[in-house]
């Protein structure tokens, strides 16, 4: 098989003959073979073994036929190098032993040292760069989303302590945003140097903020991150997470190539809000995957019909896959996206006489 670069072409808004698709959290617990590996090793133990982490990264490529791989890792991994102790607790998520809540806590955070502390991740990327026949996406958590774990100490629904710090001690908040922004920049540059072909910044929880607060407390750091990565030719994706529809107009001008949309915003409205310079990615509600295949295909078709109107569209979910998702349905969905989009794109090309 030759190298499939449809995903990169779509990120650059170039013509493709078939829409590219990948799924957030495509390496994970819906796959029985992954669950078997997880009986022996924790997520962090898998990440410590580059050959195994590369194998887990490749599992959904072979099984689902997706057009991009996403590095098997977690947004928390680089945080270890700042000097933070954490665990990923089953059915909970990231848990921080000593949360970051004061000026002193922020001052204590070290700059990350990729070579010393994160060489296993670089090694995994190098292996994948040799083996993959689709582009490798690597990723980082965005400063707000990482800060929410560091401050709360665990997953939160209200982000009460995060907001308390942000509103009450803005100098401490901005010092933390600066350090986490530096972390993202250093980390992603190292990933691209090792062979990653695109990067995605996950801001899963920033939709918890009002647009006005997003603009003041978060956007300057996000602009700086993408500006400082802008000399790299590899596509950059910003995913502002769930419930981020109202934040989209504020992203105009950010130096990313692709904006990820959640399922609450129709693709055409998402495009209007961010502006035509960006490709867009999304946005099937992951929980629709619990429905019969006919319902899944109907909803996927409606999304494709909007996305395919302009170059620069990548099919994905509006958020990550969940453990109860079915491997069989995902396989069928992937085939449907490829087959259906190929027929529409062929008709489009015939009409325009290309
Ligand atoms: O997408 C992929 O297949 C690549 C792997 C990946 C993981 N985490 C592995 C993982 C990616 C891209 C992430 C990113 C991540 N981690 C995000 C951003 C994406 C999103 O969903 O919004 C966030 C918020 C985290 C933090 C985190 N890690 C949470 C909330 C959880 C879930 C806790 C649970 O058990 O449900 C984790 C654990 C985690 N990270 C799992 C996986 C496959 C599940 C547990 C496991 O298999 O050990």
Automatic annotation (TrEMBL):
Give this protein's Gene Ontology molecular function annotations.
uroporphyrinogen decarboxylase activity
Identify the PROSITE patterns for this entry: UROD_1, UROD_2
Enzyme class at the top of the EC tree: lyase
Q: Which UniProt keywords apply?
A: Cytoplasm, Decarboxylase, Lyase, Porphyrin biosynthesis
Q: Any idea where the Uroporphyrinogen decarboxylase (URO-D) domain is?
A: 20-29, 137-153
Catalysed reactions listed for this entry: uroporphyrinogen III + 4 H(+) = coproporphyrinogen III + 4 CO2
* One of the protein's GO biological processes: protoporphyrinogen IX biosynthetic process
Record SUPFAM superfamilies:
UROD/MetE-like (SSF51726)
Q: Fetch the Pfam families from UniProt.
A: URO-D
PANTHER family attached to this UniProt entry? METHYLTETRAHYDROFOLATE:HOMOCYSTEINE METHYLTRANSFERASE RELATED, UROPORPHYRINOGEN DECARBOXYLASE
Give the similarity note: Belongs to the uroporphyrinogen decarboxylase family.
**Matching HAMAP family:** URO_D
> Tell me, what does this protein do in biology?
Catalyzes the decarboxylation of four acetate groups of uroporphyrinogen-III to yield coproporphyrinogen-III.
Q: What is this protein called?
A: Uroporphyrinogen decarboxylase
Protein source organism: Paenibacillus ferrarius
């Amino acid at each position: 098989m030759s190298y499939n670069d449809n995903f990169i072409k779509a990120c650059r808004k170039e013509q493709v003959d078939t829409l590219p698709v990948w799924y957030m959290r495509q390496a994970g617990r819906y796959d029985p073979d992954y669950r078997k590996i997880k009986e022996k090793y924790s997520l962090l133990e898998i990440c410590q073994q580059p050959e195994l982490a590369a194998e887990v990264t490749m599992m959904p490529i072979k099984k689902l036929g997706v057009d991009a791989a996403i590095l098997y890792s977690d947004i928390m991994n680089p945080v270890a190098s700042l000097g933070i102790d954490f665990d990923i607790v089953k059915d909970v998520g990231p848990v921080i032993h000593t949360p970051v809540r004061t000026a002193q806590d922020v001052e204590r955070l070290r700059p990350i040292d990729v070579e010393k502390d994160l060489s296993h991740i670089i090694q995994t990327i190098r292996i994948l760069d040799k083996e993959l026949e689709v582009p490798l996406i690597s990723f980082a958590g965005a400063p707000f989303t990482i800060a929410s774990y560091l401050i709360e100490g665990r997953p939160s629904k209200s982000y009460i302590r995060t907001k308390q710090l942000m509103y009450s001690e803005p100098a401490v908040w901005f010092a933390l945003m600066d350090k986490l922004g530096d972390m993202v920049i250093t980390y992603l540059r190292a990933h691209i140097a090792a062979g990653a072909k695109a990067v995605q910044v996950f801001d899963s929880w920033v939709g918890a903020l009002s647009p006005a607060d997003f603009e003041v407390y978060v956007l300057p750091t996000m602009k700086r991150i993408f500006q400082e990565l802008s000399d790299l030719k590899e596509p950059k994706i910003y995913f502002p997470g769930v419930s981020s529809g109202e934040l989209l107009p504020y992203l105009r001008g950010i130096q990313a190539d692709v904006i990820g949309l959640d399922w609450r915003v129709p693709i055409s409205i998402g495009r209007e809000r961010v502006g035509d310079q960006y490709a867009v990615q999304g946005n099937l509600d992951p929980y629709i995957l619990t429905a019969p295949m006919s319902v899944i295909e109907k909803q996927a078709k409606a999304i494709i019909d909007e996305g395919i109107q302009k170059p620069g569209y990548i099919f994905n979910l509006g958020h990550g896959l969940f453990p109860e998702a079915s491997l069989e349905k995902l396989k069928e969905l992937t085939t449907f996206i490829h087959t259906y989009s190929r027929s529409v794109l062929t008709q489009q090309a015939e009409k325009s006489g290309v």
